[in-house]
C-alpha cells in the first residue's frame, strides 16, 4: 500500500492538487504546470517497493509524459498566441489543435499513441495501476472536452472518430494473447479510452457518465485483485480455495466489458444512443466490435475458470472477512447498479 512509503500522503496530495489545478486553469501555462505537478506527485508513488520492474515503468512513464507535455506546450503556443490565452489569434490554429490533441492522447494512451501503456502497467503494483488507469486520465479527458466542444471541421471530426475506433479495436486485439492480468487491464483501458473519446465528440455529459462508471468498476476490480493476490491469468484458472473471489472478479470483468444488464453496459448504451443521433454508424460498429473482442476473452476466462473449479470440487470460501466484504460490495455495484440504472432509464423513456 501507499502507506508504507514515507511522505506518501504528501505525494498523493500533490498529485491530486496538480490535476485539480490543471482542470481549473484558464490558460495553457497553468494547464501545463498542473500536469507537471501531477507528474511530480505521481512518480514517487510508482517506485514505493523499489523493485526493478517499478523503476523501469517509472522511467518509461516519465519519458512519455515529458513528450506529451512538449507537444502540449508547442501546440498551445502555436494556437493560442504567446500570451497563453484561449483566443485563437494565430493563423495556424488547426495545426496547433492537432498538436495539443496529440499531446493529450499521448498522456492518456489513446491509439495510435497507446504503445507505452501495457508495458508500463505490467511492472506496477495494483494500487499504482489503479491510479494510472483512473485518476491520471481525468485531467487530459476534461481538457479534451474543453477544446473539442468547439465546432470542428468535418475532417478533424473524422480523424478523432478513427482514433476512437482504433483504440477500441486495439484494446480488443491486444488483450487476446495476454497472460498477465495487468497487461490485460491496460489493453482494456485503451479500449475504454476509445469510447470516451467518441463520447467527447458527441456529448460531454456522456463522457462524464462513462468515466464515472469506468472508475467505479475499476476500483472494484483492482481492490478484488489486490486482496486476492492474483497476478497471472493462470492463477484464476487454477484450482482455487476461494470461489467467491474468483467468480466475483470474473463477473466484474464481464461488467467492464459491457455485458448487459450490468453496470458497464449502461455507459456503453448511453454512448451508442448519443452517437446514433449524428449517424456515426461505421465508427459505432468498430467500437462495438472492439468491445465484443474484449468480452470474448473475458468469457473464455470465465468458462475455463469455472470448469476447472467444478472439476476439482474446491468450493470453499475464504475466511478473510475484509476481502470478502470488498468483493461482495463490488459485485453488488456491478450487477444491481446496472439493473437499477437500466430500470430508471426505461422508466424515464416511457
UniProtKB/TrEMBL annotation:
Keywords: Electron transport, Membrane, Mitochondrion, Mitochondrion inner membrane, NAD, Respiratory chain, Translocase, Transmembrane, Transmembrane helix, Transport, Ubiquinone
InterPro entries: Complex_I_Subunit_2, NADH_UbQ_OxRdtase_chain2, ND/Mrp_TM
GO cellular component terms, A-Z: mitochondrial inner membrane
EC number: 7.1.1.2
Keyword Electron transport in record: yes
Topology within the bilayer: Multi-pass membrane protein
Domain (NADH:quinone oxidoreductase/Mrp antiporter transmembrane) ranges: 25-294
Pfam families: Proton_antipo_M (PF00361)
GO biological process: mitochondrial electron transport, NADH to ubiquinone
Membrane-crossing residue ranges in chain numbering: 7-23, 29-49, 61-86, 92-117, 129-148, 154-172, 184-203, 209-228, 249-270, 282-308, 320-342
Keyword Transport: yes
Main localization category: mitochondrion
Catalytic activity of the protein: a ubiquinone + NADH + 5 H(+)(in) = a ubiquinol + NAD(+) + 4 H(+)(out)
Subcellular location: Mitochondrion inner membrane
EC class of the enzyme, as a word: translocase
Function: Core subunit of the mitochondrial membrane respiratory chain NADH dehydrogenase (Complex I) which catalyzes electron transfer from NADH through the respiratory chain, using ubiquinone as an electron acceptor. Essential for the catalytic activity and assembly of complex I.
Protein family: Belongs to the complex I subunit 2 family.
Descriptive protein name: NADH-ubiquinone oxidoreductase chain 2
Organism: Tricula hortensis
